[in-house]
Write a structure and sequence with these properties.
By secondary structure, the protein is an alpha/beta fold. The chain has two domains: 137 residues, Rossmann fold; 55 residues, Winged helix-like DNA-binding domain superfamily/Winged helix DNA-binding domain (Arc Repressor Mutant, subunit A). Helix content is 48%, strand content 12%. α8 crosses α9. The two termini are 33 Å apart.
Length: 216
């Protein structure tokens, strides 16, 4: 059976999740950890988990840092981010760090099972919150992409904005960086939404990455 590890500083929630996962009858919980540091200490190279349910906000060593460590040392271990946060920055940061799926802590048990099954069978999980396009693009970032680049002509300012949108800067901080007003930044964002046929900052980032404008 696929082996699962839970990394979360909320003990009651973690224990409940462990019981729920084992009740599915398809997975075994290898061990649990309070934070990334404890997880690394417990990890045995000869007994690696298949999937890690990774909380984001943890003391000592959070989910971002722990996922980056895993991406470097054990890239084949699949990370399913488990979070209270559904904002774009948190999603982007976790996928940048190597996560292959992202669910919220208040999701239904059926969604958790679906996420585990998808990671086991396909290697990634997508939901309504995180589109399949986002996941598939992230999963192919390390592969050579020979697709034809977009023919959309972007101005220098729009290109600069796209690059900055791929960072953790807020829109106001991007405006300061570009030495323009926040309203002008909003204008660039809205114009690019229309030009690129995307609706969110995640969509802008995915376009920039896929077309070689920025690297994650």
């Amino acid at each position: 059976m696929p082996k699962v590890v839970l990394v979360d500083d909320h003990v009651l929630l973690r224990n409940g999740l462990a019981s729920l996962i084992e009740s599915f009858g398809k997975y075994t919980v290898l061990f649990q950890a309070d934070n990334g540091k404890q997880f690394i200490e417990k990890l045995q190279p000869g007994m690696l988990p298949d999937i890690i349910l990774m909380d984001i906000n943890m003391p000592v060593m959070d989910g971002y840092e722990t996922s980056l460590w895993l991406k470097e040392h054990y890239p084949r271990v699949k990370i399913l981010a488990l979070s209270m946060y559904d904002n774009e920055n948190a999603i982007i940061r976790m996928f940048k760090a190597g996560a292959k799926g992202y669910i919220l802590k208040d999701c239904d048990p059926d969604e958790l099972k679906a996420a585990l099954d998808a990671l086991t069978e396909k290697g990634f999980y997508y939901s309504e919150m995180v589109t399949g396009k986002l996941i598939s693009t992230i999963n192919t970032l390390d592969e050579k992409d020979n697709t034809v680049k977009s023919i959309i002509s972007l101005s220098d300012k729009e290109t600069q904005f796209l690059k900055l949108a791929c960072t953790e800067l807020t829109y106001k901080e991007i405006a300061d960086k570009m030495i323009i007003s926040p309203r002008t930044v909003d204008g660039y964002r809205d114009d690019l939404f229309k030009k690129l046929n995307v609706r969110t900052r995640v969509g802008l980032v995915m376009f920039a990455v896929k077309n070689g404008i920025a690297n994650l």
